[in-house]
Amino acid sequence: NAGVTQTPKFQVLKTGQSMTLQCAQDMNHNSMYWYRQDPGMGLRLIYYSASEGTTDKGEVPNGYNVSRLNKREFSLRLESAAPSQTSVYFCASSFGGIGYGYTFGSGTRLTVV
Amino acid sequence: QQQVKQSPQSLIVQKGGIPIINCAYENTAFDYFPWYQQFPGKGPALLIAIRPDVSEKKEGRFTISFNKSAKQFSLHIMDSQPGDSATYFCAASIRYGNKLVFGAGTILRVKS
Fold first, then answer.
1. What pLDDT sits at residue B57?
2. What is the DSSP string of chain B?
3. What residues of chain B lie within 8 A of the CB of A103, using their CB?
């Protein structure tokens, strides 16, 4: 099925460990986004990529890095995980030009102990 | 602080009732307002969206009402069903912008 695929679905990290969350879309979308979802805070934008080759900070970028590997793939890296990064992470994509709406992946539930 | 304020945090209604979820914003540059529906363990999915040149939009049992002067918009679910039980998020963006700003979400439970 066409859509946004995120891996892994679940992950437990120890404080200070690093990891990369992977995201791929097969809808030929131009823009891709990483959000985190925390109870009572909605979805907050971490980083986004308006088009292949560009990335920009969102609302909560500290502690994260991203790579737009090609048009299909957009990865999120935690260099030194902290308990405050325990969250559910969602990748999304769109044609760009927000009237098209976003398509979200099913999320990665990350716990940092 | 949240740029889009959503209320209530949670809502319980009987089957057939009309739950109403409200959102307010401050940034007058926002001019695209979508609603997303999220089921447990899934990502949010676009439900319905409105631009401020109209005051109301209906899609099936879902209606957005928009009050530009008050900078408020709301989602009404007509004849609500247990299958509508989900978390609902309002959002806002500048037209053709690349970033959606989300409200905190409303957990809706429809009792059968």
1. 96
2. --SEEEE-SEEEEETT---EEEEEE--TT--BEEEEEE-TTS--EEEEEE-TT-SEEEETTEEEEEETTTTEEEEEETT--GGG-EEEEEEEB-TT-S--EE---EEEEEE-
3. 46
Residue B36 has φ and ψ, to the nearest 5°, of: -120, 145
Looking at chain A, which residue has its C-alpha nearest residue B93?
A98
CA of B103, closest CA in chain A: separation in Å?
Answer: 6
- Identity of the residue in A35, A97, A104 whose CB atom sits nearest the CB atom of B45: A104
Beta bridge partner(s), residue B37: B45, B88
Helix (H) or strand (E) holding A2: none
Find all residues with CB under 8 Å of A106, minimum gap 6, and list them: A6, A9, B41, B42, B43
Closest Cβ–Cβ partner in B42, B93, B98 for A106: B42
Min Cα–Cα distance to chain A from B78, Å = 23
Distance CA B54, CA A101 (A): 18
Tens of pLDDT, residue by residue over B91-102, are: 998 866 668 899
Closest by alpha carbon to B94, among B36, B7, B24, B33?
B33
d(C-alpha A23, C-alpha A44), whole Å: 17
Spell out, as residue ranges, where chain B has pLDDT lower than 70.
1-2, 95-98
How many CB pairs (< 8 A) connect A and B? 67
Spatial distance between the Cα atoms of A90 and B103, rounded to a whole number of angstroms: 16
